[in-house]
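Supplementary Text 2. Reproducibility record for the structural model of the 372-residue chain.

All settings were left at their defaults, and a single model was retained for analysis rather than an ensemble. We include the record here because the model underlies the residue-level annotations in Supplementary Table 4.
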Amino acid sequence: MLQVLIGIIVIAIVVVCAMYFYQRNLLNRINKLRAQLTDLDNSTLMAQLDDQELDMFAGDTLKRFEGLQTKYHEEVVPSIAEAKAIDEEIAEEFHGAAVLSLGSRVDDLATAVKKASSVADDIAKQLKNLDREIEQQDEAADQLRSWIRKEHNTLTTDAAQYGDSVAKLNEKLTTIENDFEAFAQLTKHGDRDAASSKLADLQAATAHFDDLMAKIPVLSHPLLMEFPDQLAELKQGYGHLISDNYHFTEDNIDHAVEALEQQRQATLNQLAVLDLSNVDQINADLAKKIDHLYAVMEKEITARPKVQQMLVPFAEHLAHAQQQNKLLTNELDRLNISYTLNNDEIATVRQLDEQLKQIETDFNTEQKTLRS
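Retained model, structure tokens:
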């Protein structure tokens, strides 16, 4: 009998302990859920979604904000209210005999709190993203204002670097400025979604403009500062050399110089409309052709003194050849009296004499040209 009583006492103690630990764990869980519910109640989300904030937005951004308001009132608020109602039921029954059946209600409380927290977190995240968009767009607006002022100043103070391209660059900059004003108006009225799209277009346009501003001076420099002087020098030099009776291995050098000048002007016209395609290759070709013409003239200038030095030796060699041919002709005429010549020796010598006379004529002509 004593053993039975001891067994009953042990079982009772175990049950009491189990009830104690169950109740304590359940209370800990409930307290954590109540703390989350308090955080939801104390959240600034309601203030952030107040109707007074509607004046800050327009267009699709306003619709987005109103959608967040609707989501908060239709999903978060009912879930909080449901959680509070469940919590009140749990509080009333927690210390009674029904505590053992509260597990499912606590699960319901956790479900309601989790839903409210999840939706609230998502709304808060979207509001944070919207705030970040606003901040980024306002920063971008300040940067664009500074950029536009800087580019206007560059086109005014450094216009010479851009040649006739300045007109089109100013037109493009004015277009960007007008687009910026449209962007600024969108941000002012709160249509941040439309402003975001406009900002993307502006950033692409400014990047392209920066590329033009960087490349055009490099491409324009030889066309404006190098080639004109070189072509003028070639034209003037060719005229002097022709009047000085120089002869060149290539014909129509003056026409070649004129063709290069026309190509230079055409390339400048291409740059004037901001067409940069192949300009770097055209510049390289122009430089190569100009260098070639310089080389042709230099070759003749260098060759003339050498030719002049050879005039006397050549004249002496020619006189010697003529004298030898004359002696050979006399000898053949003498031999022809006593012998019959069968290999047309006399005709060959006479032909050689004609060739020497022609060489003498050509030499005299060239000699007069070189010395005139």
